[in-house]
Amino acid sequence: MSDQVVVVDAGTGNLRSVVGALTKIGASVRVTSLAEEVLKAERIVLPGVGAFGEFMQGINQNHLQDALKEFIRRGRPLLGICVGMQALMEVSEELGRFEGLGILPGAVVRFEESPSFKVPHTGWNQVWFSRQSLLTKGLSSGFYAYFNHSYYCVPQKVSQILAFTDYVVDFASIVGEGALFGVQFHPEKSQQVGERLLSNFLSI
Q1: Is 63 in the active site?
Q2: Would the pTM of this model clear 0.90, i.e. be above it?
Q3: CATH number of 4-203
Q4: Of the listed 54, 94, 153, 188, which one is catalytic?
Q5: Domain boundaries in the chain?
Q6: Structure-model confidence comparison of residues 3 and 91, the more confident one
Q7: Catalytic residue, candidates 54, 82, 94, 153
Q8: Cα 42 → chain centroid
Q9: Active site residue 188
């Protein structure tokens, strides 16, 4: 297991819980907003909170967009969390229309309002596997994870949906291709299953 991981800071939220969770499982963590540090990284965690547009603005202002794309092009491991997963898509409709990194074809859309479901989707829900992956090794399909979001990813390629969760619709809760992964839930708030998932990522 590699213990080196770079956490990318887009300047939109508190990264303490993500850094704390990685440190707890034995990772050596560096937080950066510098493109040159991204390009030198062994593996990257891209956490995101708040609005998609503000997150992407932070990415672009720090000139991280090209560095992240190049990092992924080289086949190195990257894990996007929550808005960090959504940023892998081409476009989001949150509070307007904003371009993402465009690494995975697809869009980010809002849950439909419903008397039966509250938006945002907040709390524990189950994650069901669409296919096995190195990220979920040792976890059982249907495990519970902690969510907090009003928007979700709609990937164009079914093969890139690794797991789904049922809330209003069946939405993609884990996406991935090669060494690139994204999770809509918060592994740093998901107790033992979150620790296992992060440990798996450090082993990829």
Answers
A1: no
A2: yes
A3: 3.40.50.880
A4: 188
A5: 4-203
A6: 91
A7: 82
A8: 17
A9: yes
